[in-house]
Design goal:
The complex is a heterodimer of chains A (302) and B (94).
Chain A: H1 6-10, H2 18-32, H3 41-57, H4 60-71, H5 76-89, E1 97-100, E2 103-107, H6 115-121, E3 138-145, H7 146-149, E4 153-159, E5 162-168, E6 177-180, E7 196-203, E8 209-211, E9 214-222, H8 223-228, E10 230-236, E11 239-245, E12 254-257, E13 274-281, H9 288-301
Parallel strand pairs in A: 3-7, 9-13
Antiparallel strand pairs in A: 1-2, 2-3, 4-5, 6-7, 8-9, 10-11, 12-13
Helix pairs in contact in A: 2-3, 5-6
Chain B: E1 6-8, H1 9-16, H2 20-28, E2 34-37, E3 40-44, H3 48-60, H4 65-91
Antiparallel strand pairs in B: 1-3, 2-3
The chains are: A alpha+beta (302), B alpha+beta (94).
Chain lengths: 302, 94
């Protein structure tokens, strides 16, 4: 664990007055406040750091204790001893963020303070439940393979000790957020619970490229099929299909297969399209016989 | 509109220790909607998270109503841009 320089965090000298501290904190809070930086984890983390610094430096008693430790910081043994004693007195801190298998969740608040803070001052400091009315929102990230996102399926999540069974409709988009009302932290004073916001991270585990409801894939065909026409069986997410390749198909020809793409979110039975691009493979390492025949073709064609 | 989705403004102000005038200023700016039923005013439960954000901006960051209005507009814009960026990065995914 590293020493945290709270003065540096707020960008103020060690002899800063209470007013200087307040001003510096306010200035940084206006820049880094989570409400002003949606989906910016880096800003949220920095906000947590300035909050922690403010919590210590704006409280004369805490500041005094911190300044003393700051001077003695090199006496690591004493510090470690103090830390061990403290760790018996205080359990875990707030509700920061946690990994649970393939999803993570965290409270919408700015999370727990650093280990350094907890060792010095114990517990989660100022991170007591600040709920006055409506409960806090929880956010979760759920990873779903593209093949699973193809069908509607159910999944059980454990959020704060409670099992939440959710239905994930087919066609969910990467980065899409679903709000589950009242599945957040409990409200206070008769206020409603917060919500659970689930952000879906759809990992593409297929050979298809997805753009909204449409799927794209490049398929190889040999030169002879391209020239003379023929059949080609391809894989879709919904099984194999046999396609006709027209005579004289050019390299890069695109084919649109209506309704063979990805399911449309919450529109049962509706699908996007599948676009196949033909890539004509030119033979290499010709045998003597092939070379002879191609030369003959060349001669009669010119 | 269901009655249970409505929160009495007075209750909300008491628990948050805020002035009623703050809520009406937000309404005047079009930032939230207040519903009146039998001479009692209510806010919609769905507006709560937005309203609590405005309270934080006003009381924690000292931002006035005009500032909140501007921030709200810009945050909507950021949200749209983030969505567009996500769609575009989904499009160019290899």
């Amino acid at each position: 664990m590293d020493f945290v320089d709270y003065y540096k965090t707020l960008g103020i000298p060690k002899d800063a007055s209470a007013d200087d501290i307040k001003k510096a904190y306010r200035k940084l809070a206006r820049k880094l406040h989570p409400d002003l930086n949606p989906n910016d984890k880096d800003a949220h983390k920095k906000f947590q750091q300035i909050n922690e610094a403010n919590e210590v430096l704006s409280d004369p008693e805490k500041r005094k204790k911190y300044d003393q430790y700051g001077q003695d910081w090199k006496h690591a043994d004493q510090y470690e001893k103090a830390k061990q004693q403290k760790s018996h007195d205080f359990g875990g801190g707030g509700f920061g963020g946690a990994n649970y298998g393939d999803y993570t969740y965290s409270s919408g608040d700015d999370g727990a303070f650093s280990d350094f803070f907890e060792s010095l001052f114990g517990g989660a400091g100022g991170r007591k439940n600040k709920t006055k009315y409506r409960g806090q929102d929880y956010s979760a990230e759920l990873h779903v393979p593209l093949t699973d996102a193809y069908t509607t399926h159910k999944q059980t999540l454990t959020v704060n000790g409670k099992n939440v069974r959710i239905t994930i409709p087919a066609g969910i988009e990467n980065g899409q957020v679903i709000r589950l009302k009242t599945y957040g932290s409990p409200g206070a004073n008769g206020g409603p619970n917060g919500d659970l916001l689930i952000t879906f991270v759809v990992n593409n585990d297929t050979a298809f490229r997805r753009d909204g409801n449409d799927l794209f894939k490049t398929e190889n065909i040999d030169l002879y099929t391209a020239l003379l026409g023929g059949d080609k069986t391809i894989e879709t997410l919904n099984g194999k299909i046999k396609l006709k390749v027209a005579e004289g198909t050019q390299n890069g020809t695109k084919l649109r297969l209506k309704g063979k793409g990805f399911p449309v979110y919450k529109q049962e039975g509706e699908f996007g399209d599948l676009y196949i691009t033909w890539n004509v493979k030119i033979p290499t390492h010709l045998t003597a016989k092939q070379k002879e025949l191609f030369t003959e073709l060349q001669n009669i064609s010119s | 509109m269901e009655h249970e989705e409505l929160i009495p403004v007075r209750d909300f102000c008491v628990h948050h220790n805020i002035e009623y005038s703050f809520i009406s200023s937000l309404q005047d700016s079009g930032l939230i909607q207040i519903t009146s039923l039998q001479s009692t005013t209510f806010i919609q439960a769905d507006d709560l998270h937005k309203l609590e954000k405005f309270i934080r901006l006003y009381y924690e960051l000292d931002i006035n109503i005009e500032g909140i209005e501007t921030i709200n507009y810009l945050l909507d814009k950021i949200e749209d841009l983030q969505r567009e960026l996500k769609n575009l990065s989904n499009k160019i995914e290899v």
